[in-house]
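#random but structural
TW: two for the price of one
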Amino acid sequence: MPSKTFHAVFLRLLFLFAIGASPFAWANSGGSASAGAGNTAKLEPFTVNLDGFERYLQTTVTLQVASAEVGEKIKLFMPMIRHGLILILSSKEASLLQSSEGKREVIEEIRDRINKVLEIKEHDGVTDIFFENFIIQ
C-alpha cells in the first residue's frame, strides 16, 4: 500500500498539471529562475553593513531576466553575483539608499555588474532589479 507521502506528492503533481503549471517551475519557485511571463531569479536574502558601519541593510533581491537560460546561468555564477552585490551595497551611505533616486542608481549599478559577470548585454541578460524587502537600520 503506498504511503501518505506518495499520495500527497501525486495529488500536488496532478493539481499542477490540471492548472497548466509544470512541476519544474513549481519546484524552483522562490530560489531560482522560473518560467512564464517575465522570467525571474530570486536571490537569497542578505544583510550588509553600510558605509560607515553604523547602519546596515537587509534586503531580498529578485532579478528580471531575458530568458530562462539566463536564470540558469545566474545559478552558476551565484557566488560572484552575491559578492558583487555585497560590494556595491556596502559601499553606499544610508542617506543615498533612503531616496528613490538613490535606489534607482543602485539598481542600475547592480544590473550592470551582474550582466558584466554573466558576460551578457543588458537586453539579453538581467533587464531589471526588484527589491522585495529593503530595511535600513
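TW: number two ↓
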Amino acid sequence: MMEVGRLCIKTAGRDAGKKCVIVEVMDEKFVMIDGETRRRKCNVRHLEPLTETIKLSKGAAHTSVISEFKKLGMEIKATKPRKAAEKPAKTRAADRKKLAPKEEKPKAKAEKAKPKAEGKLEKAIEE
C-alpha cells in the first residue's frame, strides 16, 4: 500500500492535515515524504493513504514533486528558510578597552584643592 508516488494526508505532528506524497520507502515502518509538508522521514502510522498516485521516481527532487502537484490542481506554497539576523562581530575585552571613550578625571576637585592649600599658607603667613 505504501509505495513511491502514493498521495497521503499527514495525521500527526506539526504538518497534520496537509497533503504529501511518498518519495522514498525507507523500510516497512518509515517513508520519506514531500509536498505541502516538510520533506522528511515519517512513520507510516502518521499517514492516511489516499487512492490517488503520482508518477514519481524514487528520491524525486522537490521541484518535480511541485510540478506533479500542480498537474493535479493542488497549489503548494513555496517556503524559504528564514535568514538568520546578522550578529555583531565579537570583540575581545582588550579591544573593548581600546574602543571605549577615555574618561577624564574631573579637574574641578584638583583645582579646589590648590586654593585651600594656598589659603592655609596665607593664613599662616598672616599670623
